[in-house]
Amino acid sequence: MSDTHAQTQPFVRGEMLPESEPPLAEKGAVKWLRENLFSGWLNILLTVVSLYVIWVVLSTVVPWTVLGIWDADSLTGCREIRDARYGEGMEVACWAVIADRWQQLLFGFYPRDLYARPVLALLVFFAGIAPVLFTGLPRKLLWGSLAAPFVMYWLLWGGSIWGPIVVALGLAVGALAFQVGNRAQGALLGGILAIVVPILYWLFLAGPLIRALASVLPIGIEFVPSDDFGGFMLSFIIGIAGITLSLPLGILLALGRQSDLFIINKVSVAFIEIIRGVPLIVWLFTASLLLNYFLPPGTNFDLMLRVIIMVTFFASAYIAEVVRGGLAALPKGQYEAGDALGLDYAKSMRLIILPQALKIAIPGIVNTFIGLFKDTTLVVFIGLLDPIGLSNSIRATTDWNGIYWELFVFIGILFFICCYSMGRYSLALERKLTRENR
Amino acid sequence: MSAISHEPQAGGFRLSQLIYDTRYRSLTIQVVALILLVLGLSWLVSNTVQNLEALGKDFDFGFLTQPAGYDINQRLIEYDSQMSHGRAALVGILNTLLVALLGCAAATILGVFFGVLRLSKNWLVARLAAVYVEGFRNVPLLLWIIAIFAIMAEGMPQPRDFREGGGASMLVGDSVAVTNRGIYIPNVVFTRSLGGNEVVAPEPEEPDDAGTTGVASGTYGGSRIATGGAGVSTGQDDQDAADARNAQSAAGEDDAAEGEIVPSSSALDWLVVLGLLVLGIIAARMVTAWAKRKQEATGKRPRTLWINLALILVAPAIALFLLGAQFDYPVLGGFNFDGGVHLRNSLIALWFALSLYTGAFVAEIVRGGILAISKGQSEAAFALGLRPNRTMRLIILPQALRVIIPPLISQYLNLTKNSSLAIAVGYMDARSTLGGITINQTGRELEGMLLLGLFYLVLSLVISSLMNVYNNSVKLKER
Asked: Number of folded domains in chain A?
């Protein structure tokens, strides 16, 4: 047996061979194509089918979009230009409707010369939200975030400057009451005072104070009623208000649902389940048809405000469930650790539990926000002029009767940009907050 | 060292203990919360009572028995405008359930399909699936519904284009017509229907009885979804007067064998067929269980494929044959198609949009579920010598399902609730009948909205509890 090996000539190479290039099929684009697109019969088939689908879609959409007509003042004008330019039978977009009506789609019937105000309000929003979203910024900017809602309200609706200022003062009054109560009787009295005193202030003192200040020193800008609001501005206002208000409410509801206190627990569960079990559209109809039944006779407040309240309740129930998932995902040891350190409930929640639970819940929370923002389109059914409502009214004019796709595409792209960027932000945040190394 | 320096004072209960003693504090908080809650609720109720009095209204559900006075263009059960508001609400509720059921089924199929495609190793296919998912997830559902409705109403050929040389043609061997008034598909009808057949022979037998059942069966049961009735608000549907009988006689002439028995379908026929199908499936499952026992006892698995197929299919097939099943094809009549099932644009738009939109969410859930199964599981399966399809079926899917099912349930719930967007296209669902026309006609907003909310609430709770039962059965059993 071993003889056969003994007779073979041993050969040991003395020097290294130079590295040779990988074969053509194993490098660069060719390799990528082979591995990703043509690795087997099924894959080749899928690739061909996909290419066909892409070709069919693009060959219709691209010429329609690129060759679109921008300079016309009505749909018939568009068609005339199209026939003159490309001959009959060619389907191209009539972007002239966007060029003609983009202000309406963005701002509704907001006075034309005041367009700067909503834009400014949006900038204020971004300035206010920046310190919250990006932790690298100095913490003192958070005071600006606190002031932003009042500034935005004033910019959007206008009127006397004293209204928002006096209302904002209520927060300072609450903080003061907390300090006083805290020093006198401890945190519990401080907490109660911090809730009760500002409410009393807003109910009884704010109104006269605003009137008095406004009569002494009338500073203000032109008032714009809510009926003039519309388009994407309306979606943004409802969406942003709903998002900022529903997050704290949702966290409270989630804590209530986790609570051992029987009544608080059951009330939270009932609220969450009832709100979640019924479609938003039914709640919106409730807001527009029924809310007057539940309020003292004679009260009648803004439809937009009612919608914001309903949207907030709706989103907060969903956020409560998402946050509850985060709370449930925390190991029990975290709760026990908080107790072992001697922290009271509020502190252990604020310092230990919620930061971790909210981190887990971020994707769900952002998904809820995206859903809320998309759901703002439903207000069209109770008579508010959101982008879809405006597209209907644009289509109802004689100039643009029968135009569909250009408006849908415009609205769809704007919504897509907003929702997609929110989703990307949540992914980035998730990646940043992940602590374990995988 | 000195954990407790002094004993808590015995006996002397001070009022401040209610706040500072943890033994009593939770009670205090709850009592305060209860008082506030009761106060708030009584405030709302007293306001409502006052407001109702001021408007001169009472709180009464009697309107449900009054005649509705409006037509519903799509109905699964017999209904006309003389029937009560309660019946109209029931028709709407069934329509909601129909679109929710269709939507859930289609969304699941689409979602699984695109979820798997998004995981494909083929770069192009994965990107296409991602475009679908992101595109549908990030644009409001309402926009998709009205866009699809617009495609159907504006983009599809008119019925008259289906005439000779009109440029449009029917699909699938002249059986499906896609028109701008909706989609017409063949219907299955029975010549020996258990609900009785109308006979248009020279000598009709028992004309009264046969006549009523004929009409009743014409409007029944998943089979003939839309037959006649004036359109209420469905933009496109300026009603063709194709009523059930017309359609049936057209089909009868087609049949041309005797021209006497008008084929029809009734609930009973379908109940029999479906019942046999369900029985067959149960029997097949029992055979599978027997095969499993045998495999575990002897190590050999008997071949069950053909037995199971026979069990499931043969009995319903025999039933269909005995009942004299045949297709009722849509045929171009005067201005419109007669016969077959007319799926209205409103149903199509709502159904497609709901399924495409929810399908995008389901796709993400499916992808996440499959990715959640660690690679070691499939490697272990390969190490055991299982082939890829068995690995998928026996190892990956059962574990992935456990991750997939809970979020899937909530997507089904969302779809059901989103079906209330039917308002955008005039589909007559529960909100349009009970929460729309009925409220407008009777002025009973409070009662109507209450019932509507209750319906959706009960529906949600039922779906989620049913699904939770299923979820518990596939859940990982731990200590």
From this structure: 3
Q: What is the pTM of this model?
A: 0.82
Does A194 lie in the same domain as A260?
no
Cα separation of B175 and B154, whole Å? 22
CA distance B413 to A232: 28
Residue A360 to residue B7: CA distance in whole angstroms: 43
Q: Does B150 touch chain A (CB under 8 A)?
A: yes
CATH number for the domain that contains residue B102: 1.10.3720.10
In tens, the pLDDT along B358-379 reads 999 999 999 888 888 888 888 9
Q: Which DSSP string do the residues of A192-216 spell out, in sequence order?
A: HHHHHHHHHIIIIIHHHHHHHHHHH
List, as one string, the DSSP characters of B146-173.
Answer: HHHHHIIIIISPPGGGGSTTSS---BTT
| Nearest-neighbour CA in chain A from B177: distance (Å) | 23
From chain B, the residues in CB contact with A274 under 8 A are 453, 457
The reply to whether A4 falls in a domain is: no
Q: Name the 3-class secondary structure at A413.
A: helix
As a whole number of angstroms, the distance between CA B116 and CA B132 comes to 13
Terminal Cα distance for chain B, rounded: 40
**A126-149 confidence digits (pLDDT tens):** 888 888 877 777 878 888 888 888
In the structure encoding, which two tokens stand for residue B461, read together?
């709770």
With an 8 Å Cβ cutoff, is A386 touching chain B?
Answer: no
Residues B140 and A373 sit within 8 Å (Cβ to Cβ): no
Residues of B in contact with A296 (CB under 8 A): 47, 50
CA distances (Å), A414 to each of A171, A210, A365, A410, B276, in order? 36, 39, 21, 6, 52
User: Side chain identity at A103, as an amino acid letter?
Assistant: Q
Residues constituting chain B: 479
Chain B touched by A40 (CB under 8 Å): no
The tally of domains found in chain B comes to: 2
B453 in A contact zone (CB under 8 Å): yes
At position B308, the amino acid (one-letter code) is N
CB contact under 8 A, A412 and B143: yes
Residues of chain A with pLDDT under 70: 1-9, 187, 435-438
